[in-house]
Write the structure tokens for this entry.
Amino acid sequence: MSKIDSLNFPVLLVDDEVQALNSFETVLRTAQIHNCIRCQDSREVLSLLETGDIEVILLDLRMPYISGEELLPTIRSEFPEIPVIVITGANDVETAVTCMKFGAFDYILKPVEKSRLISAVKRAIELRELKRENRLLKDHVLYNKLKNPDVFSTIITRSRDMRAVFQYVEAIASSPQPVTITGETGVGKEMIAQAIHQLSRHKAAFVPVNAAGVDEHAFTDTLFGHKKGAFTGADSSRQGMVEKASGGTLFLDEIGDLSADSQVKLMRLLAENEYLPLGADIAKRANARVVVATNRNLQTLQSAGKFRKDLYYRLSSHHVHIPPLRDRKEDLPLLLEYFLELTAAELAKKKPAYPNELLDLLASYHFPGNVRELQGMIWDAVSNHRHGVLALKVFKTHITKAQSDIDMEASHQDTISQHQIVFTEQLPTLKEAEHLLISEALKRSGNNQAVAAMHLGITRQALNRRLKHGKFKDLP
């Protein structure tokens, strides 16, 4: 849905001629701008501005009582945040220059061309929206406060990076422009999408659609629906997800997997706010906020010709990136406690205690599956738990297998693995290399020998022997 479908405040139309007001309002309605206030008496303009917020003003210059030329500097002085589009029948360069000098946003001649008027109003609305977002972001940076912390209460974190994400989400949530959420699998992209929905003005349904592995026909039918008899087996009409999300939010997950044909149809939905159900001859209007998510790099896909350039830029209006769990390890203690309690309750068990060694083990792991992977590990461990302190076996087995899978995948790649050691010109001796490797493993494991031994692929006893025979005075 475009900005013009859900204005924060109305457009004020000021002209002494009823015919002109009718014309302006009709043109704006064709562009889905329905929130308008008409003013035929220029003496009422200032009182209207004082009693209610206005998005944009269309101001005629030649009017009885108070001319537009007199009103313009007063409006710009007392209400500088409101864009004023001057409309006049006088094709006078000097008048135009004077209006722009006094701060007019645009200057349009009568008879007004439809596309020119719509374009000017759209640009003015976008300017207002951009200024609002910048102001909100500035407030967040200055005061470091969330206005709606309850909306994010289900996202367990103490990370400063995640707090910055929340602040940005609050700033852009009311904008009707599309939002793209990026991040690795399991970081919680849908949770952020739901937070955007809750903070937005769109209070109807939140409708999620997974675009992964969906062919063009299935995508069209799912998103736009179909008419009865549109294809073999279409025994009745079907409402699409866009229609179900009307007045709410349409969340498209795994957007990077869309086929080329599906990308064309999504582009039309975003650009024109309309869609064509299968078998239909007349397009329907869309009225849903669009939020998309992907774990792929859309810019890379676009550069490779696998993602439409126009769609990429259309989706780039607002971009929320969620950092991976390995970059916010400070969240591990909170998440561990939360998932232990949640899992124990779901399994009707007492929440188990865990050894301190568990946090060191988790902190040394890279979590390719992020928060979702951690939750799965905890579920598995609590499911197998019987009594006493929570065992580390499930966690160690999972981490060892994950590391083995990564090593196996890397061995089949021709490119240099990111885990490969880069040597200097002077090679270290075996003893020096062993010393460096053990030092790094202990550093990453928080000096926990059991965890370090697991990452080195040796037993704790073997590591202990090496520590006794080597010189490790510089270890943490």
